[in-house]
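Section 5.1 Outputs to date
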Amino acid sequence: METLAALLEPGRRALAADGTLLRREEQHGGTAGATLLVVDLEMSGPSPREHEVIDLGGVLAGVESGFPEQGSWGARVRPLHIGTANVGALKVAGYSSRKWRDAVPLEEAFARLAELGAGATIAGWGIGGDMAFLAESARRTGTPWPFGDVAIDVQLIARRLLDRSEVDRFNLGHVADRLGIGRLGEHTALADAYATYDVLVKLAERAGLGATP
C-alpha cells in the first residue's frame, strides 16, 4: 500500500449528484478530495422515506499522512414522527424523551454538518444506510448536496487489510476492540464516528501511512 489513494480505493463508492450511492455498473472516476468527513447516523428505522435521522455526528480529517483531525460536531436530532419509529432502532440509539429534550431540528443539524464538511468526501462504516439518510436529509431540507461525489466505506478497507485470524466479525465495535481502540462512553453517533475515524487511522498505520513522528 503506497499511497493514501490506494488505501482508500477498496472503500470508494461513487455518488449521484443528489448524494445517493450509484450501482456498481454506474461507478464514475471520482476520487477522495482533500478532506474526509467521517460520519455516523442513528435513525428511527430502516426506511429513509418513512423514518428519520435522530442522531448524527462527523469528524473532519485531512487526507494526508495520519488523517489529522480538523474538527468535529454532533447532535441529537428532534424527530417529528416518533409514532412511526421502529422500537428496535430507538433502543439501539438509546432514545428517550428526556435525552432528546435539547435535540435540534433536522434543518439545523444538517446545516451544521454541511458547514463542517463542505466539499469533503463522506466516509463511514457500512455506509449504505447512512448515505441513504444523508441524501434524504438533503432532499427534506431543500439543500443541494454539499459534500463530494464519492464516499468511502471504511468497513470495506478493513476487510481488505485485516486477516480473519485477527478479526472474525466486521462490525465496528469488534474491529475497534481488536485494534486496541478504546470506546467513547455512551453510545452516540459522534462516538461511533470517532470510532470509525480511529479505525481508519489504525488501518493507515498498518499500511505504513501513519503520521510522521
